[in-house]
Amino acid sequence: MVERILADVRKRGDAAVREYSVKFDKIDVKEPEVPAADREVAVAELDSQTRADTEFAIDNVRRFAEAQLATILPLDIEPLPGLHLGHRVIAIERIGAYVPGGRFPLLSAPIMTIVPAKVAGCREVIACLPPNAHHAMIAGCHLAGADRIFRIGGAQAIAAMAFGTDSIPQVDKIVGPGNAFVNEAKRQVFGPVGIDQLAGPSEIFVLADASGDPRLIATDLLAQAEHDVRTRVGLITTDRSLAERTATEVTRQLETLETAEIAGASWEDYGEIVLCEDEEAMIAYSDHVAAEHLQVHTSDPHALAAKLCNYGSLFIGENASVVYSDKTVGTNHTLPTAGAGHYTGGLWVGSYVKIATHQWLENEAVLKVGPPASRQSASEGLDGHRKAAQVRVDKLRQWSAA
Question: Distance from the CA of 15 to the CA of which of 37, 291, 316, 354 falls in 20 to 30 A?
């Protein structure tokens, strides 16, 4: 189905997008772009506390992204006399941010995808969100800094951003999580456009020893479990008593949790408690899982954290709950899942820039690097390469001899 949607939108553009919105969202969106006046109305309709909290989160995400960007520096070196190598940090020109609708209005979602793009210096950020998404989500996109906002969701939104239509510009990279259809659409369009990652169901694991607090651990596990019935949640511990008390506490808290229908199913089908012989085994299992969110609740959490290698984001000490990162502290909550923490981190300001190398050579450098480049090309049977390397060497030698 996704392949068919992508091909149809690529061929018929806005007409196909509109038809799929009617089919899947049950809404006929005649003008997909949200005009400036409607954006302002959406912001005005936010209650004052929600707006203040949203702007607090935006400020924190911006500050952290600015600090990260300051670590990504241009480079110019001269490894040999006359040989100049370097790179530039170049912002990606146009970003497409997919903002999921979901069961609840997740105002943090546009903050995490849009704010770092603006900090990076991207010229234009396009936001797409399902036409039936909560009106507050438009306000979130606007406050986060989206240049243009479109009421288009699903695979058709990914197709529109990837290929462009009369209404929606083609982007260079698509970021942001979505449902299985959005995820598959991102996978299929990758190549002509970049993507951030393929997001699976959310994950949280807690590493704990005998000092762990079962009430806090159970609360954090269930907080993440309420995202989706397929959320993977787990406790890795060296203490049997803590394992047993945490299991009891999860059961107790589910009795009063308003989202128990979702969180309980997640715990029942994907919850796990792993009892390890020692800290070394606990670390090994954690690094094998490479959890999206990894909390450390031990007597010396910083020491244990320093030994961990594979995770999406690390939460050191019992005060560092995942919910703070999800919403307001400033680190990004778009993180690798399904073991991708073995090879990548999460979305960050560096996801919105390119590190593009350059080089230039003075004459003395040509005489150093040219001959070995010519010989290597000849050994590889690439005569055109050999000539391109040698012609400059010969020219300089003739000039020196004249």
Answer: 37
